[in-house]
Write a structure and sequence with these properties.
- The chain has 13 helices and 18 strands.
- It is α/β, with parallel strands linked by helices.
- It folds into three domains: 152 residues, NAD(P)-binding Rossmann-like Domain (Rossmann fold); 162 residues, Dihydrodipicolinate Reductase, domain 2; 81 residues, Alpha-Beta Plaits (2-Layer Sandwich), CATH 3.30.70.
- The strands form two sheets. Strands 7, 8, 9, 10, 11, 12, 13, 14, 15, 16, 17 and 18 form a twelve-stranded mixed beta sheet that branches.
- Helix 4 packs parallel to helix 9.
- It is elongated.
- Bound molecules: L-homoserine (HSE).
- The site of L-homoserine has 7 residues, from helix 6.
């Protein structure tokens, strides 16, 4: 049996989980673990403190280490550490979505030159096996669409807003108290985390390089109790959806934003911190993968899985199999959100004047927007009314023009929200 030496960078929630899982595998030897604070008390039974180092370069430059497991996050100094490790001929297992989304192309190219692999099952949707299925058993398919709930924190907040009629602020506070949301929740609530994940999924599904800067990104911070209520009344749930689709012409549309999801849709039923990824392709049809997207144990299942798959490969050969090597060379033709077609939810506050709905309807019509549902429930105390419209499939740029025109009228006081709809 070949014993593989592992050097870990990071020993937080995920790192300690991985350490515990790997204890039962005799062919895996954890040789060194790099941490920021070497004096911090570790909640791991029978842990040998001598494994710890505060210098991660000690790991990436150690000739005895075969696989570097990176579970520390961020891009600095992680990018340089992993480049050094690859240059030193080490295989990489990482959970770092941000690094792969921003610097994946450079790292994968270098890894290929050095004949090592980078595995990253834990980077997307925690414990859900999604990277490996796309790269292996689904490789005969032309994949055309991925739609997913890829961020547990925001799904938890939106679920609680809907179930308990909470405001965004109260639901966020509760999520923080329960440890679902971080003290600085920006990365999750503004859609960065989901954007990194959909960038990774889109690049392997479409086999093209995705530019993270061209991904349209809108978080959940502007969702109000009124939006949740109106959505429910119209038969929808609001979810933060990460979407990637490729047209017949090869145009790639990748984005993250909240959507009204029909309550009959599978994604509408995915609640709390659970993640779900739906993939469509030919010849397979539609697939759905659902499960825990974060947390020590689910994430360590994916990290340890990658390590053991790699160990089994390296038992048989020093050369990793080509499917595990990612080498997208073509750049995706990513389109701007303004070019996309969607159904829309538009909520406006109008003054209680005769003809306000008529004015709104005329402006929509003039901008090629066909209304499919319209809802107004009475008049507010200040003599205004909330009017909610669901449109048929329309072009984003037309909808944005219509919103500008609506705001220029006397009767439309405010655009409360514009959300896209999934049926
Ligand atoms: N913060 C993420 C989430 C998990 O809430 O899903 C790690 O990407």
């Amino acid at each position: 049996m070949k014993i593989l030496n592992i050097g870990m960078i990071g020993f937080g929630t995920v790192g300690t989980g991985v350490y515990k899982v790997l204890q039962s595998f005799k062919n895996i030897n954890i040789k060194k673990i790099a941490v920021k604070n070497i004096n911090k008390k570790r909640n791991v039974e029978n842990f040998d403190e001598k494994l710890l180092t505060s210098d991660a370069y000690e790991i990436v430059n150690n000739p005895e280490i075969d696989i570097v497991v990176e579970v520390s996050g961020g891009t600095d100094p992680t990018y340089d550490l992993l480049k050094t490790a690859i240059n030193n001929g080490k295989h990489i297992v990482t959970a770092n979505k941000e690094l792969l989304a921003k610097k994946g192309s450079e790292l994968f190219k270098l890894a290929q030159e050095k004949n090592v692999v980078i595995l990253y099952e834990a980077a997307v949707a925690g414990g859900i096996p999604i990277i490996m299925p796309i790269k292996t058993i689904l490789c005969a398919n032309k994949l055309t669409k991925i739609a997913g709930i890829l961020n547990g924190t925001t799904n938890y907040i939106l679920t609680k807003m809907a179930e308990k009629d909470l405001s965004y602020e109260t639901a966020l506070k509760q999520a923080q108290e329960l440890g679902y949301a971080e003290t600085d929740p920006t990365g999750d609530v503004k859609g960065f985390d989901a954007a990194y994940k959909i960038a990774i999924l889109a690049s392997i599904s479409f086999n093209k390089k995705i530019d993270i800067n061209k991904i349209y990104k809108e978080g959940i911070t502007k969702i109000t109790e009124q939006d949740i209520k109106s959505a429910k009344e119209l038969g929808y749930r609001i979810k933060l959806i990460a979407l990637a689709q490729m047209s017949d012409k090869g145009e790639v549309d990748v984005r993250v934003h909240p959507m009204l999801v029909s309550k009959k849709h599978l994604l509408a039923k995915v609640n709390n911190a659970t993640n779900s990824v739906m993939i469509s392709g030919y010849p397979v049809g539609d697939l759905a993968f659902t499960g825990p997207g974060a947390g020590s144990e689910p994430t360590s299942s994916s990290v340890a899985g990658d390590i053991l798959v790699l160990a089994s490969e390296l038992e048989a050969s020093d050369k990793p199999i080509p499917l595990y090597v990612r080498n997208q060379t073509e750049i995706a033709n990513q389109i701007d959100i303004s070019e996309t077609y969607n159904e829309y939810y538009i909520s406006v506050t109008a003054s209680n004047n005769p003809g306000a709905i008529g004015v709104a309807g005329t402006i929509c019509g003039n901008n090629n927007i066909n209304i499919s549902t319209i809802m107004q429930k009475g008049i507010n105390e200040d003599n205004t009314a909330e009017i909610v419209v669901i449109t048929e499939r329309s072009k984003e740029s037309d909808v944005q023009n219509a919103l500008k025109e609506l705001l220029n009228t006397d009767c439309i006081k405010k655009i409360n929200n514009l959300l896209r709809v999934m049926n």
